[in-house]
């Protein structure tokens, strides 16, 4: 009964948010509370929720101070050179822009933190997507999928969890998986190219100088410089005569509909990367760069817990860059909306995961899945684990999967001569899809900053992310890794 109710609860949650009948936050709280009562454990709901909050509180703290830290770094201009470089590469070509999204997300993902990746990627490219009226779900989908593949880095979380759960060395798990993961990353770039071609076709490929040009690639270096300046400023309807940016309103519409070629609405203005903003601190550029490198180094070395590192980093960044109290308050207030939205989602997700774990639904679902694996598939438990990792890491947290299910899969594999290392490597396959799970706090940073509905992001991304996971699995089998 718990197995059936567990699957029904997850299905109910997904259907309601994808049909936009409930907000993700409300669904994360009310649906598990209802099912907790249905299984006859309503009296324990408070304990389950408190346990869930306790488990996720460090994650909420980490995201809160990470948003403040990297928000300040964006404010003071630390990432402006990267942004300008990406924008110059992208120009106004949708293909280059979408590929650039994958490239930027993959590079920033090296720090192992999804929220950081999404904040920097969206801040850099949101103005360009809006300016050209490109689909914002393309940006969120490509960024999330690229980050999902890179999330398998040993300091990203999943690999460390698999190593801990099975008492293995993280390097022994990760290093042999590099060819398969590299193939998955290439698949993301191929996907970005295809989606970019689709956007170019939707928006049109009018030549420079025609009203409504969506492609509008600069004809010379001077025009390119002016275009980049326009994008960074996030200019609205005001257009400089003769510039490429002034002719990139496009024939396409917003996220999925054709437009009329009119100028952008006032709400489309985006000033976060204004090169003349008052928050820039050019004299402190190298200090901020050194601070960020030191922070990421300590994060990778795991010298202190990640929440503590970001708490200290945010305090130092605010104090040095904005020594006056009123300026510090202004910067915190500027990022308060993102902090509140994300931390709220984390604690709402704590209700969902707390009920799933506390009622025993997760355990019953896992044992049912493993118990229904045919005996003939026993010698192929690596393949079974890889396939199961795709939906299971989407429907539950990494902690639940790696500490609750992977050990069971490893035991089943051991009975058929399949080593724990193979099981551990196969368990990483589903991470491309996992990063778009409603139980991953960082995804709310992504959709929140991009102003995309979570349901729209899910509908668009799930199929492509699942396909990427299958590519990683296929590559692992082809290379003899799994």
Verbal overview:
Mean pLDDT is 79; it is low at 206-272. This protein starts with a helix and ends with a helix. The chain contains 21 helices and no strands. By secondary structure, the protein is an all-alpha fold.
Task: Briefly characterize the structure.
The chain is mostly helical and 482 residues long. It has helices at 2-18, 24-38, 45-76, 80-90, 94-108, 114-131, 136-150, 158-166, 170-203, 221-233, 285-301, 306-321, 325-334, 336-358, 361-371, 381-395, 398-414, 420-426, 431-434, 442-450, 454-478.
Question: What oligomeric state do these chains adopt?
Answer: single chain
Fraction in beta strands: under 5%
Please provide the ordered H/E string of secondary-structure elements.
Answer: HHHHHHHHHHHHHHHHHHHHH
Q: Gap between N and C termini, in Å?
A: 34 Å
Largest sheet: none
* Derived structural class: mainly alpha
Overall strand count = 0
Low-confidence stretches: 206-272
Alpha-carbon Rg, integer = 23 Å
Give the overall shape, derived from the CA principal axes. Answer: globular
What's the pLDDT, averaged over the residues? 79
**Helical proportion, percent range:** 55-70%
Output the number of helix runs: 21
List the helices and strands and how they pair.
Layout: H1 2-18, H2 24-38, H3 45-76, H4 80-90, H5 94-108, H6 114-131, H7 136-150, H8 158-166, H9 170-203, H10 221-233, H11 285-301, H12 306-321, H13 325-334, H14 336-358, H15 361-371, H16 381-395, H17 398-414, H18 420-426, H19 431-434, H20 442-450, H21 454-478
Helix pairs in contact: 1-2, 1-15, 2-14, 3-6, 3-12, 3-14, 4-5, 5-6, 5-7, 5-9, 6-7, 6-20, 7-9, 7-20, 7-21, 8-17, 8-18, 9-18, 9-21, 11-12, 14-20, 15-17, 16-17, 16-18, 16-21
């Amino acid at each position: 009964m718990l197995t059936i109710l567990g699957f029904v609860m997850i299905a109910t949650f997904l259907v309601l948010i994808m049909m936009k009948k409930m907000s993700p936050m409300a669904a994360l709280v009310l649906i598990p509370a209802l099912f907790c009562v249905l299984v006859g454990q309503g009296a324990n709901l408070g304990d389950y929720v408190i346990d869930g909050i306790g488990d996720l509180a460090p994650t909420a703290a980490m995201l809160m101070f990470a948003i403040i830290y990297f928000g300040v770094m964006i404010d003071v201009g630390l990432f402006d050179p990267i942004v300008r470089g990406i924008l110059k590469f992208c120009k106004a070509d949708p293909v280059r822009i979408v590929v650039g999204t994958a490239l930027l997300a993959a590079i920033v993902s090296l720090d192992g933190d999804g929220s950081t990746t999404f904040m920097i990627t969206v801040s850099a490219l949101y103005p360009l997507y809006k300016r050209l009226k490109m689909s914002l779900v393309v940006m969120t989908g490509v960024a999330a999928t690229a980050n999902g593949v890179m999330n398998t880095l040993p300091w990203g979380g999943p690999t460390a969890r698999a190593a801990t759960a099975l008492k293995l060395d993280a390097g022994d798990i990760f290093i042999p998986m590099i060819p398969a993961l590299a193939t998955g990353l290439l698949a993301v770039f191929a996907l970005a190219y295809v989606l970019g071609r689709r956007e170019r076709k939707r928006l049109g490929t009018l030549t420079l100088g025609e009203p409504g040009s969506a492609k509008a690639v600069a004809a010379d270096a001077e025009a390119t410089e002016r275009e980049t300046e326009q994008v960074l400023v996030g200019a609205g309807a005001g257009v400089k005569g003769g510039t490429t940016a002034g002719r990139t309103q496009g024939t396409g519409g917003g996220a999925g509909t054709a437009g009329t070629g009119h100028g952008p609405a006032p709400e489309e203005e985006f000033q976060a990367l204004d090169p003349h903003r008052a928050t820039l601190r050019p004299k402190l550029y190298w200090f901020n760069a050194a601070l960020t490198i030191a922070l990421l180094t300590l994060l990778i070395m795991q010298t202190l817990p990640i929440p503590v590192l970001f708490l200290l980093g945010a305090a130092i960044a605010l104090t040095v860059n904005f020594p006056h109290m009123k300026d510090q308050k202004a910067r915190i207030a500027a990022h308060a909306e993102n902090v509140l939205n994300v931390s709220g989602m984390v604690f709402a997700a704590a209700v969902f995961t707390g009920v799933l774990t506390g009622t025993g639904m997760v355990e019953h679902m896992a044992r049912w899945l493993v118990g229904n694996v045919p005996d003939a598939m026993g010698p192929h438990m690596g393949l079974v684990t890889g396939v199961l990792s795709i939906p299971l890491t989407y429907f539950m947290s990494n902690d639940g999967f790696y500490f609750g299910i992977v050990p069971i899969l490893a035991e089943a594999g051991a009975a058929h001569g399949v080593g724990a290392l193979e099981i551990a490597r196969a368990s990483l396959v589903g991470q491309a899809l996992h990063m778009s799970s409603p139980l991953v706090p960082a995804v709310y940073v992504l959709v929140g900053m991009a102003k995309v509905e979570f349901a729209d992001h899910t509908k668009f991304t799930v199929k492509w992310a699942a396909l990427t996971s299958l590519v990683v699995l296929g590559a692992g089998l082809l290379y003899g890794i799994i």
